[in-house]
Amino acid sequence: MFKPQNRIAEPRWIDWTRLRPGLVPPGSGRPEVAAWLRDPGSLTRAVVQACAGDFGVVVQRQDWARALPSEQRWLGASPAERCLVREVKLRCDDTPWVFARTLIPATSLRGPARRLARLRSRPLGAVLFADPCTRRLGVQLARLDARHALYHAACSHLDKDRLPAAIWGRRTRFSYAGKPLLVNEIFLPAIPARTS
Question: Comparing C-alpha atoms, which of 142, 125, 147 is closest to residue 33?
Fold first, then answer.
C-alpha cells in the first residue's frame, strides 16, 4: 500500500451546514457523494436499499486505542481515555462502498450500551437507529487525501494505481443509551450516485 512521507493525521472537518453545492464535485469518473453526505437517516439502511446484490459488513479491526486529537475533542474524551475502535467496510456484493470507523469511549460501554462491543458483523446502524432514544448530536464533513491516515485505512483494498485523488467522509456524534460515540463514514470510489 502506498504511504506518503508527508502524511498528516487528520483532515479538516467542517460542520455539515457549511456544505455548499459544488463543493463536492463529481470529478473524473467519481460519483457525486453530496447526497450521501447529507442523508439524515441510517447510512446502513440507505446502502442496503441502493445495493441490488448482497450487502455485507466486513470487520477490519476492533480493539482498544486512543482517539485522534479532533475525535477526542469532539467526544469530550480525555487524551488518556481509551476507546473501543471498530473499523468496517460496508460492501455490496464483494465491492466496498463505505469505510466506517466507530469510536466508543470506555466510559460509554456501560449499561445497555455494552451490546455495542459485541456487534461482530452486524451493522452498527441497525442497533443505533432501532433505538428511538438515539440522538444525532452533530455532523461534520471532510475531504480526505493521501496525507490523511483515514484515507489510507479506507482505501486499503485498492491497488496503488487505482487510488483516488480524494474521497469524502462525514462523522457523526451520537448519544446512545445516554452515552457518546463517534461514527466516521468514508465514501469509497465504488459507491453509486444517490438517485433519491
Answer: 142
- Using only C-alpha atoms, what is the Rg of the chain? 16
Rama region for 93: left / alpha / beta (φ>0; ψ in -120 to 50; rest):
left
Domain regions of the chain by residue span: 14-20+27-187
Q: Under CATH, domain 14-20+27-187 is a member of which superfamily?
A: Chorismate lyase-like (3.40.1410.10)
Report the distance separating Cα 76 and Cα 175, nearest Å. 12
Which three-class secondary structure state does DSSP give residue 120? coil
- Decide: helix, strand or coil at residue 112: helix
Q: Name the H helices within 30-181.
A: 34-38, 43-50, 69-75, 124-128, 149-154
pLDDT band per the 50, 70, 90 thresholds, residue 154: very high
**Structure confidence at residue 170 (pLDDT):** 93
Contact predicate 89/55, CB 8 Å: no
Over residues 76-97, the pLDDT tens digits come to 888 888 999 999 999 999 999 9
